[in-house]
Structures are given as structure tokens and as C-alpha cells.
Write a structure and sequence with these properties.
By secondary structure, this protein is mainly alpha-helical. The chain has 4 helices and no strands.
Length: about 100
């Protein structure tokens, strides 16, 4: 357990530290924090939809096993397509509202 925590800190310590420093330097107000939380929420939605579409594609539609087939390009295209559509939806909602 302690080894896992040490490994996590070594892998992610630099970018987390830089993020904290950048956050402190920018001194964001409430509007910026709400925007950041909104972006995080949209990314969680995109990752959830990408995971759902990957599950549907692999288990229901094609019965494809990514480990056996080494079909990483297909997985990447699913995630890219879902994020692209989420981005277009956000832009569409932004201009309508």
C-alpha cells in the first residue's frame, strides 16, 4: 500500500505541484473556479460516454477483445470521436444560450 502511494506521488507530483503553483499565481475568482468545475464536469461526461461506447462496441456489437487484437487505434478513435462530439455540443449550447 505504501509503495502504491509512493509510486503515485513520483508519477504525478510534478504536474500537481505545477498546477498548484499556477493556480496560486492566477488568483482566480469565483467565476473562474465555476468555469473550471464546469469543464471538469464536461470532461467526466465525455469520459463516461467514451467508456460506455467502448463497452457497447466491444461487448455487444463486435465482440472485439483489445488485448488479443492489439486494436489500440480503434479505441483511440472511439475516445477521439466522443470528445469531438462533446466539444461540438458545448460550442452549440454556448452559441444558442
Amino acid at each position: 500500500m505504501l509503495e502504491n502511494i509512493k509510486s503515485f506521488l513520483l508519477r504525478n507530483g510534478l504536474w500537481v505541484s505545477l498546477g498548484i503553483i499556477a493556480f496560486a499565481i492566477l488568483n482566480p475568482g469565483m467565476t473562474e473556479i465555476r468555469t473550471l468545475l464546469f469543464l471538469i464536469l464536461i470532461e467526466i461526461l465525455a469520459l463516461g460516454l467514451a467508456s460506455l461506447s467502448t463497452f457497447i462496441y466491444t461487448n455487444i456489437y463486435t465482440k472485439l477483445d483489445f488485448i488479443k487484437e492489439q486494436s489500440i487505434q480503434t479505441l483511440g478513435l472511439i475516445f477521439l470521436g466522443v470528445h469531438f462530439l462533446i466539444g461540438l455540443s458545448v460550442i452549440g449550447i454556448y452559441y444558442v444560450i
